[in-house]
Amino acid sequence: MYTGVPTVKQTAVYVYQAPVRIWHWVTALSITILAITGYLIGSPLPTLPGEASDHYLMGYIRFFHFAAAYIFIVGFLFRIYWAFVGNSYSRQLFSLPFWRRRFWSELAHELRWYAFLEKEPRKYIGHNPLAHLFMVVIITVGGLVMIVTGLALYSEQSGLGSWQDELFGWVIPFVGQSQDVRMWHHWGMWIIVVFVMLHVYTAIREDIMSRQSLISTMISGWRMFKDDRP
Amino acid sequence: MATTETFYEVMRRQGVTRRSFLKFCSLTAASLGLAPGVTGQIVQAMETKPRTPVIWLHGLECTCCSESFIRSAHPLVSDVVLSMISLDYDDTIMASAGHQAEAILDEIRTKYKGNYILAVEGNAPLNQDGMSCFIGGRPFVEQLREMATDCQAVIAWGSCASWGCVQAAHPNPTQATPIHKLIHDKPIIKVPGCPPIAEVMTGVITYMLTFDRIPELDRQGRPKMFYGQRIHDKCYRRPHFDAGQFVEDWDDEGARKGYCLYKMGCKGPTTYNACSTVRWNNGVSFPIQSGHGCIGCSEDGFWDKGGFYDHVTDTRVFGIEANADKVGIAAAGTVGAAIAAHATVSAIQRSKQKNQNNARHEENDKA
């Protein structure tokens, strides 16, 4: 008998520890700044009138790009550290159950859910398989590629013998030449931009349509479930 | 062939005064970025050392390196420079020809085994059995390999010998191959540029002859003293770059005022060379000073890196040329549209399900 009173009990699990949540939002902000300033380095703003000594626009844009980049890098290194000391969910970003058959079948289920072929999604305490795959490929691998190519480009101005050059200077001849590294770094930006669009959309959509909380989880750390079914 | 003559003797024979000779030594020290005290060392070396023979081979090339080389203003004038290095073979400018000329190669190779410098201008084509470059009745690659076996070191003149340059540009029909991919057992000094700066060429060769060692090289085998920094790092228009003042169009106000050529596709930020410091034609000018962007002629594969007039250039992947910005904006737009469509369908689906649920609940209520 339907009484109008919700019969669904909400359960909650603590998933994202505070450092992971802080890292998420710091990284989100740094990626935003990096994408905007990076685009403006590739395609600078219209020319400013007056004397060169009156302005430092390109200098400031580049400064913000480098500052945000270092924040991103420090955050990335911290995140690796946290994978060792944090809870099991903090390790998802660095491990993909590639050889587990079940991972791929659940990934297919998730894809079918997005293609409107499944009535409802499954419940996951951590990332769902599709999100998991994207996080590892775009944030971990993609982030690493952007850090390595970015520091290689930075070594061009810090000069021969600088630590950026010692550690990452090899990337330039490895990829081809300086212009190639620039272009791959630029492609990387667009891949991340597209990922962010999908990430934000799916987070909002899942928050509404799935059986668990998404956005509030990255703020409070608690995963709330909307029903008791498995 | 008076190869026992010292540099100094040759210079005096050429009518160079001692005063000019000393000036030359200090200028050389300065251009190599050495301390003033080293001048004495150069003087001493030049006065006492017998000249090391240099063999100058020409493969698949356009001779612009030679043209540049003979215009070196300091160290000294061209004829002295040419005598100075005991250029024993250079088929472009030597008097002898045919078998007579080729005999010199054998002579040097046996007489100065392990003691001559092999300077190579151009590269070797490998396709069609090397037929695209034929010297003395056989493929150039054979001559190159043979002369390289007994040399002390190889200087790869210009972008052809260093990277491949235009003849190696896509699709490279003759499979023109740069020196470092052919010779593996000798030190190779790359002096890229199309052509390299005259003073850089003479600077490198003077360094090697005076100090009996090759200059310090970077990761890619280029002398650090000339290729350690980008054009951009020492460009006199750099303040306009930092300020955000660019030439937006040829002949605009910015072009007249000498603003930064970044937006016109200047490759200064990606090109390692000494143009912005040493400049060209006795320091008169260099491309950027003349109002045209750098085309990156001393960089690997610069012909295949998209337009000379774009900053964000096309990337060639799997045979498709694509521009990161165009593809990126198109992808972001497509994904955005897909998201909107998906969201709409999701909303419809959800309201349908809600209605169904409500209907089911109502039925339950009735029952």
TrEMBL record, chain A:
Tell me a GO biological process for this protein: respiratory electron transport chain
A Gene Ontology cellular component where this protein is annotated is: plasma membrane
* Major localization class: membrane
**GO-annotated molecular function:** electron transfer activity; heme binding; iron ion binding
List UniProt keywords, sorted A-Z.
Answer: Cell membrane, Electron transport, Heme, Iron, Membrane, Metal-binding, Transmembrane, Transmembrane helix, Transport
Q: Which residues cross the membrane?
A: 22-41, 61-82, 130-154, 187-204
Bilayer topology reads: Multi-pass membrane protein
What range does the record give for the signal peptide? Answer: none
Where is the protein localized?
Cell membrane
In this entry, which stretches build a coiled coil? Answer: none
By sequence similarity, the record places it as follows:
Belongs to the HupC/HyaC/HydC family.
Function, as annotated? Probable b-type cytochrome.
List the protein's name: Ni/Fe-hydrogenase 1 B-type cytochrome subunit
In its UniProt entry, the species of origin is given as Thiobaca trueperi
Read off the lineage from the record. Answer: Bacteria, Pseudomonadati, Pseudomonadota, Gammaproteobacteria, Chromatiales
UniProtKB/TrEMBL annotation, chain B:
In terms of NCBIfam families, this protein maps to:
hydA (TIGR00391), TAT_signal_seq (TIGR01409)
Its Gene Ontology molecular function terms?
3 iron, 4 sulfur cluster binding; 4 iron, 4 sulfur cluster binding; electron transfer activity; ferredoxin hydrogenase activity; hydrogenase (acceptor) activity; metal ion binding
Describe the subunit structure.
Heterodimer of a large and a small subunit.
Q: Keyword set for this entry?
A: 3Fe-4S, 4Fe-4S, Cell membrane, Iron, Iron-sulfur, Membrane, Metal-binding, Oxidoreductase, Signal
Q: What class of enzyme is it?
A: oxidoreductase
In the record, the note on similarity to other proteins reads:
Belongs to the [NiFe]/[NiFeSe] hydrogenase small subunit family.
| Occurrences of domain Cytochrome-c3 hydrogenase C-terminal (ranges) | 227-306
Keyword Membrane present in the record's keywords: the answer is: yes
Which coenzyme or cofactor does it need? [3Fe-4S] cluster; [4Fe-4S] cluster
Binding residues for [3Fe-4S] cluster: C275, C294, C297
GO cellular component annotations of the record: [Ni-Fe] hydrogenase complex; ferredoxin hydrogenase complex; plasma membrane
Q: Does the keyword Iron apply?
A: yes
Instruction: Report the residue ranges that make up the NADH:ubiquinone oxidoreductase-like 20kDa subunit domain in this protein.
Output: 62-207
Q: What is its main location?
A: membrane
User: What organism does the UniProt record list as the source?
Assistant: Thiobaca trueperi
Positions with a binding annotation for [4Fe-4S] cluster 2:
H232, C235, C260, C266
> What Gene Ontology terms for biological process does this UniProt record contain?
anaerobic respiration
Q: What is its EC number?
A: 1.12.99.6
This one is known as hydrogenase (acceptor)
Reaction equations catalysed: H2 + A = AH2
